[in-house]
Amino acid sequence: MKEQLLPWYLRSADFYKPNWHTRPTIGFELLFEFLRLSPSYELARKASMEGLSTADQLLLPPDFEQVKNTYQLLGDVQKILFRQWWIARGLSTFGNPYARPKLHAVAQLAGGKDISAETLVGNFESYLAGARHEEGLVDSVLIAVPLGLRQSEIRRQMSAILTAYSGHEQNSRQSPLIKLQGKRLRSKVLFNGLRLLWFKAAKPQWEHWRLGAKSRFSVTYSKELNPANPRRVVSTLESYDREMMTKITNRALKKFESIAENAARGRFPSQDPVHPVDFQYPFLAKRIQRKNTWEQEEKARLLAAFRSRRH
């Protein structure tokens, strides 16, 4: 079965629906996965669905209200597949609450005739009061296109005109409730960070050099170290490699824990200083296992329903 047909895979149409749209990016799924690991976000889930124990109360960060606000927007991420979550929560949070902007043919000027402004008023008023408002009053350029030109010449001149406006600051009413931060999403780096946190949860007692080697986090040192080696060091070079791998892994864990906690506050991807919350990796491992078990069962259920509809 083709992957794109499976019911839990996103379709391009999932990023657009009447009066909502956003640019497709892997960043939303990465945010979703980091939220699943955040201890602050898990506390917000418990506060909303189960209530907090006395022990939980002691773990609350000073800015827990901000985490709760994010949870109000994004909801539970443990017992829900990403596509389900995106349709239910994601698009309305990260999308623009207006129709997707497109080009409009406002009026046609007949060749060989003088056209008075009065004859075009109705066309302009219809566009300005209708489509322009529906699209959130986005910055636009009105361009007269001579229909007799070749398509290639039209494209060349259109490109030159639009280039002149490329640095223009966009002003519109479009305002997603949460925006991804930064102009360039380093998806591979973020995924490697997720994988490191998953390995840490699976092996919380491992030395960090061993953890970094197993997760292949460092291009340089991971390939030099065997995570299955005994604790005893056999050479000065191996000792040095372990020391460097330990430092790299320590920094990376702090970095990606911070990214997860910032995600819980509606900032992603961000390494801004954040109130620290203990990740408690043995408990995180149990949460990941429960999530994985549920996810496997949910995919099996959806697949069975999908196959029954096709036959």
Write the layout of secondary structure elements.
Layout: E1 16-17, E2 20-21, H1 27-37, H2 39-49, H3 54-59, H4 64-74, H5 82-94, H6 117-129, H7 131-134, H8 151-164, H9 187-202, H10 208-214, H11 236-263, H12 281-310
Helix pairs in contact: 1-9, 1-11, 2-4, 9-11, 9-12, 10-11
3D architecture notes:
Helix content is 53%, strand content 1%. The chain has one domain. The chain has 12 helices and 2 strands. The model has no long low-confidence stretch (mean pLDDT 86).
Describe the largest sheet. 2 strands, antiparallel
Estimate the mean pLDDT confidence.
Answer: 86
Low-pLDDT runs: none
Structural class: mainly alpha
Could you list some keywords that capture this structure?
single chain; 311 residues; mainly alpha; two-stranded antiparallel ribbon; 12 helices; 2 strands; elongated
Summary?
The protein is mostly helical and 311 residues long. It has helices at residues 27-37, 39-49, 54-59, 64-74, 82-94, 117-129, 131-134, 151-164, 187-202, 208-214, 236-263, 281-310, and strands at 16-17, 20-21. The longest helix is centred in the last third of the chain and has 30 residues, at 281-310.
